[in-house]
Design brief:
The radius of gyration is 18 Å and the shape is globular. The chain is mostly beta strands. The strands form 2 sheets. It has a 14-stranded antiparallel β-barrel. Strands 8-9 form a two-stranded antiparallel sheet. The protein contains 2 helices and 16 strands.
């Protein structure tokens, strides 16, 4: 890595020294806000609220990749496979952040089901790892809980609690993985428009606000834009559905450090009767 490229890396990590923070892609609100909806949810939505699994009607899969601030050393990748069953719906999730010299990864198993027509719940069990080849690796096991309430066809709300007991990293318990709490609401006046508002609170950090809009002018075309406070992040995206494959091009923007391009690919089976 060139010395000039170290500057944004130092800026990114300097404010996280109080504890191991949760690494989110800059544009992750783009793939997550569909949780507060019945028509905009995708396989990747369960990354932000595992209770969204309860609404799954068929097999789905998705992957997302992002090059944060145009630096390969800060690349981030996510993948999800989700499928329904008679006893509830399941998902296998994987996340990776970093490069050969430093990386973080997480493998998860999620489960979601309906408790009532208007209430969905979910739980996920996570295996988290930080690896620095020169020093070895540290691992942690944790879990998350989530719920979504469908107030009516237009209004949906939900909560998520990630790692509430702050699991420790490594054998010496010297560092803890941060806990994260999210509450959000989505307003969907039609099957073409969704607006969302989320409050995200992570340990040792101020609460952040995420506001986003998704619009589908035709069934095959998807557009989105949003803003997340904290690090002042904007994002925009556009996607197209061709048969059973949807591809979205995404871009996140930081006011000082710059552009974070990303791509999302979804497999969406055709629903019965269509």
């Amino acid at each position: 890595m060139k010395f000039a490229n170290l500057i944004p890396v130092v800026l990114l990590y300097a404010h996280t020294m109080l504890g191991q923070t949760v690494r989110y892609p800059i544009s992750i609100p783009y793939i997550s806000s569909g949780a507060y909806s019945k028509d905009f949810s995708t396989a990747l939505t369960v990354q932000s609220n595992v209770a969204a699994l309860a609404s799954l009607e068929h097999f789905g899969a998705g992957t997302y990749g992002e090059r944060r601030f145009m630096l390969s050393e800060l690349s981030s990748y996510s993948a999800v496979i989700a499928f329904p069953s008679r006893s509830g719906n399941f998902a296998f999730m994987a996340d990776y952040f970093g490069y050969n010299g430093y990386n973080e990864s997480e493998l998860s198993i999620g489960y979601g089901r309906k408790l009532h027509n208007n209430l969905d719940i979910g739980v996920a069990f996570n295996y988290y790892q930080v690896r620095i080849p020169s020093y070895g690796k540290a691992t942690s096991y944790n879990f998350e809980l989530a719920a979504i309430i469908h107030i009516n066809d237009e209004l949906h709300t939900g909560v998520r609690v990630y790692n509430p007991f702050r699991s420790t990293l490594g054998a010496h318990n010297a560092e803890k993985l941060a806990a994260s709490y999210t509450a959000g609401v989505g307003y969907q006046p039609s099957d073409r428009f969704l607006s969302t508002l989320e409050v995200i609170k992570e340990d040792d950090r101020p609460a952040a606000i995420h506001a986003g809009i998704q619009y589908r002018p035709i069934p095959q075309l998807f557009t989105s834009t949003g803003y997340k406070s904290g690090n002042t992040q904007f994002y925009v995206g556009i996607g197209y559905l061709y048969k059973q494959i949807r591809i979205d091009m995404v871009a996140g923007f930081h006011q000082y450090i710059g552009l974070s391009p990303g791509i999302m690919i979804l497999y969406i089976p055709t629903k019965k009767g269509k």
